[in-house]
Amino acid sequence: QVQLVESGGGLVQPGGSLRLSCAASGFTLDYFAIAWFRQAPGKEREGVSCIHSSDGSTYYADSVKGRFTTSRDNAKNTVYLQMNSLKPEDTAVYYCAARLGDYGLGTQWEYDYWGQGTQVTVSS
Q1: Which residue from 122, 123, 119, 124 is spatially nearest to 9, judged by alpha carbons?
Q2: What contacts 109, CB < 8 A, 6 or more positions away?
Q3: Quick one: which of 19, 36, 43, 98 has the fewest CB in 10 Å?
């Protein structure tokens, strides 16, 4: 059974950090580009970051550039999203998604597999 499971969300104060994990089961992430998306209440799902399978190239939305870093550990079949300098506007449910092929971040419609999401809340 193909499955992606996110973890690491929670409540953090503005300026704080969190690290999200996306663990795969039922398939190997080696050949997949992995993206992080987020969706805040009443808003559309937006792409946050992507990491390619072939060379580890990374892509970020302008809103998170310089604050978020995505990485992958193929030996653990896991991708990470390190989030620093968090802001209240980063509050959302964060999803990881996988697709074959390295085409940059793209839109949510281009991804084949999704996790169930993890809540990130940035508030004082």
Answers
A1: 119
A2: none
A3: 43
What is the mean pLDDT for each group of 10 consecutive residues in the chain (124 residues)?
Answer: 94 98 93 96 97 94 98 95 98 97 92 97 97
Expressed in angstroms, the distance from the first to the final Cα of the chain is 40
Cβ burial of 88 (10 Å; 0-12, 13-18, 19+) is exposed
Pairwise CA distance, residues 3 & 93, whole Å:
18
- CA 23 from chain centre, in angstroms, equals 11
90/54 Cα distance (integer angstroms):
29
pLDDT at 68: 98
Q: Which of 37, 95, 33 lies closest to 64 in space, CA to CA?
A: 37
Stated as kind and residue range, the H or E segment containing 60 is: strand 58-60
Q: How buried is 106 (Cβ within 10 angstroms: 0-12 exposed, 13-18 middle, 19+ buried)? A: middle
89: helix, strand or coil:
helix
